[in-house]
Amino acid sequence: MREIQKGANVSLTALSEDAGSVVVSLSWTSASGAGDADVSVLLLDGSGKVRDENDFYFYNHPAADDGSVQLLGKTPTENGDEDRIGLDLTAVPPGVERIVVAASQYGGACFGDLDDLRMTVADRSGEPLVGFSIEDAGVERAFIFGELYRRGEEWKFRAVGQGYETGLAGLATDFGIAVLEEGEEAAGEPAGETPKTLGGGESAPDAESGSAGAAVAVAAAAEPEEQAEPEPAPAAPVAAPAVPAQSRGRGPRTTRKKVTLPKVPGKSLAENESWRPARLFPVPSLKSDKEREVRATSVLLSVMAQVPELGRRLTAGFGAPAGRMQTFTEVSLPHGESPRRPDGVIRVERAGKLWTALVETKTNGNPLRTEQVQEYVDIAARRGYQAVITLSNDVALEGVPMVEVKVDGRRKHKVTLWHLSWAEVAHQAQLLIRHEGVGNAAHAWLLQELLEYLQHENSGCHGFQNMGPAWVPVRKGIEDEMLGGGDPRAVEVVESWERLIRQVCLRLGGELGQKALPVQRARRGSDPRERRAAAGEALCADGRLTAELRIDGTSRVIAVTADLRTARLRTSVEIPAPAGSYPLSTVKRLLRLLAEAPADLHVESLVEGANGPRGTLERLRPEPADLLPRDGAQLTGFRLTLVKGMGNTRGNAESGFIRSVDEAVERFYHGVVAHLGAVEGQRSGGRRG
Q1: pLDDT value at position 649?
Q2: Strand 69-76 vs strand 80-88: parallel, antiparallel, or unpaired?
Q3: Closest CA to 279 of 426, 454, 425
Q4: Contacts of 456 (CB under 8 A, 6+ apart)
Q5: How many CA atoms within 13 Å lie on the side-chain side of 184?
Q6: What is the number of other CB atoms lying within 10 angstroms of the CB of residue 649?
Q7: Distances from the Cα of 10 to the Cαs of 14, 89, 131, 150, in angstroms?
Q8: What are phi and psi of 44, to 5 degrees?
Q9: Long-range contacts of 620-624 (CB under 8 A, 24+ apart)
Q10: How far from the centroid of its chain's Cα atoms is residue 113's Cα?
Q11: Element containing residue 416 per DSSP (H, E)
């Protein structure tokens, strides 16, 4: 991710080939935990003004009908909040030249009360592209974080970081919106007419805060058209006209209230533990793979159509527009002498146009069949459909197609082939029902029933669950020291390992409500096949599989190593020592933070150019000085490691390798990494001081 300074700009197209849709994140922290702000988005034309009141998106007007703007809501962080905004740049109307992303405080609060103000922009795949931190906020009650603007055929991002002491009223007025107290006549409107509220509804009291809603109307006075400049200049913080601003007792909402399910269920009324709750989607009767495929497809597609948040989330990355969705199963489509029946069809309608995708489903670890997928691609091309989506327990990798299909270059209509794993479906459902919320309680319940179905042992939708046919011979070859360099089976194992790590990230991220991502040390844009070939050579040489993963929003990198020679799994993390602190005080502080960590945790001190003393947590607790470097060497940090045996089988049975890796990462995160947040907070607090 590229870090830029205030006033700098960068081309999103130059940073990613997948920047047609982006997710903008605004985040902040508060020492008291009480700080909050409301995000807003303004679409501006060439004159630097909104075209009408519908170009202003905020808590009471959270989404555009064309899908170009969608406020995705808040996600609580350790000491603050992160607000996310989805922007489909391909759907932005041609008359819009700039997209301003801002936030406002309410009451007497100002942005100087908040810490770590930050804006990031990620592409459609979730890859962070550019970040901007604001360090000079003061008395401003509204702040423009940044803006996206057109330059020819591309979109660019500018870091603005300018604020308004006059709050939302000053910001809105500067872009052609008049903010009025309810009951006050809008400029140019006949007496007795009620001005439109923020978002185009009627002025009415806010049901939650008990206070009247603020009102806005587009300024009636025509502004002279300005000369176009080489780069759009950010709006300067100016004193807005004397427009009364709304005071809200409990603070405004970013979007409508979201419903999530509690992590701890209420007390059961069952007489004993043998009673099982009734489920909307029962699974114990499923006996064949065909039954599992039909049931899983129908369950998923029906919930996607009924819960817009899930349907949009699963299809947005495949190029589907935001619109009315309908789903179908077992549809008969002509193909030669006999029709074909794809497992499902998804159709989305927007502005009278249809987007259609055929769905081919596999469960229980069954592989996708190339000839079957090829037929669906051919059918889709002939009928003018846009996509074919394959769904299975396997996890897609960059540069490794799930199935090889041929595309007839003579056809004008192109069909895109996409893949979705059951682990990704479960991940997105868990994010919505546990962390981000959905529109109403019925939708939350439907998502919970979907998740219960996917996680049932008989559903066949358990995600990646087999290391492949090369796993056993490669592992035996390493144990016998008979695996030679260049063995193609080693590359197959590396690919399976990469799929496993991606699934581990999905499961951990769904549980935490934060994105967990594999860390790739290779140069951006490098050939993934060359990278995997090099990893295969390393596996043949030292018998180890290695990976790194990071939780979004933190600097912690968790290293995972599977040593096939010793049958041991190592999970570790390195943390730097705070600058300027006494070594013994630093060690004692670390041991206090790890008071609840497993006693068998290995702690190793790091010094310049070498490894320092080490020991288990159990031994070091009564003797923290044993970790101090000898001969007065400078302490630079610590390495924390847990070691466990790994399973022998290639599947995900209780003793399996896949299960053991999943459990090792989960135990390490919750037992060790989760306790280290205070260390980073102390270091950042020291820098601010």
Answers
A1: 52
A2: antiparallel
A3: 454
A4: 283, 284
A5: 17
A6: 17
A7: 8, 16, 11, 12
A8: -115, 145
A9: 620/591, 621/591, 624/584, 624/587, 624/588, 624/591
A10: 27
A11: strand 416-421
Cα 422 to Cα 464: distance, rounded to the nearest angstrom: 8
Residue 607 and residue 566 in contact, taking contact as beta carbons nearer than 8 Å = no
- Cα–Cα distance, 345 to 342 (Å, whole number): 7
Query: Contact at 8 Å (CB) between 466 and 651?
Result: yes
Cβ pair 387, 416 in contact under 8 A: yes
Maximum pairwise Cα distance, the chain: 91
204: nearest Cα among 213, 192, 215 = 213
CA distances from 486 to 19, 478, 483, 543, 583 (A): 37, 13, 9, 13, 47
Q: What's the rounded Cα separation, in Å, for the pair 498 and 18?
A: 22
The residue assigned the tokens 């860390």 is 519
DSSP string, 524-572: TT--HHHHHHHHHHHHHHH-EEEEEEEETTS--EEEEEEETTTTEEEEE
Q: What was the pLDDT predicted at 684?
A: 39
Query: Cα 106 to the chain's mean position, in Å?
Result: 28
CA 385, CA 605: separation in Å to the nearest integer? 59
Residue count of the chain, please give it: 689
Compute the distance between CA of residue 214 and CA of residue 182 in angstroms, rounded to an integer: 6
> Cα–Cα distances in Å, from 311 out to 13, 428, 496, 565, 596?
27, 10, 29, 45, 40
Beta-carbon neighbour count of residue 530 at 10 Å? Answer: 11
Structure tokens at 600: 């068998």
DSSP states of 252-276: --SSSPPB---SSPPPP--SSTT--
| CA atoms within 13 A of residue 284's CA, in its CB half-sphere | 3
* Closest residue by Cα to residue 84 from 32, 30, 120, 128: 120
Q: How far is CA 662 from CA 141, 315, 463, 652, in A?
A: 45, 27, 12, 10
Question: What is the C-alpha to C-alpha distance for residues 613 and 605, in angstroms, rounded to an integer?
Answer: 6
Average pLDDT over residues 418-441: 88
- Other Cβ atoms less than 10 A from the Cβ of 304: the count is 23
CA angle 551, 553, 558 (to 5 degrees): 30
Question: pLDDT tens-digit profile of 621-668?
Answer: 999 888 888 777 888 889 999 999 886 554 444 348 888 999 999 999
Q: Taking all residues of the chain, what is their mean pLDDT, rounded to a whole number?
A: 80
CA distance 598 to 642: 9
Cβ pair 47, 38 in contact under 8 A: no
- C-alpha distances (whole Å) from 435 to each of 71, 512, 551 are 16, 8, 15
- Degrees to nearest 5, angle at CA 469 with 466 and 475: 90
| Separation between Cα atoms, residue 216 and residue 201, nearest integer Å | 10
Q: Where are the alpha helices (DSSP H) in 569-656?
A: 583-593, 617-620
522 vs 49, higher pLDDT: 49
| Rounded distance between C-alpha atoms, residue 451 and residue 671, angstroms | 26
Q: Is the pTM of this model over 0.70?
A: no
Q: Which residue has better confidence, 126 or 251?
A: 126
- Tokens 């998804």: give the residue: 346
What φ, ψ does residue 95 adopt, rounded to 5°?
-75, -10
Strands 602-607 and 610-616, by their bridges, are antiparallel
- Residue 212 near residue 206, CB atoms below 8 Å: yes
Give the residue among 163, 206, 150 at the shortest CA–CA distance from 182.
206
Q: Residue 335 corresponds to which amino acid?
A: H
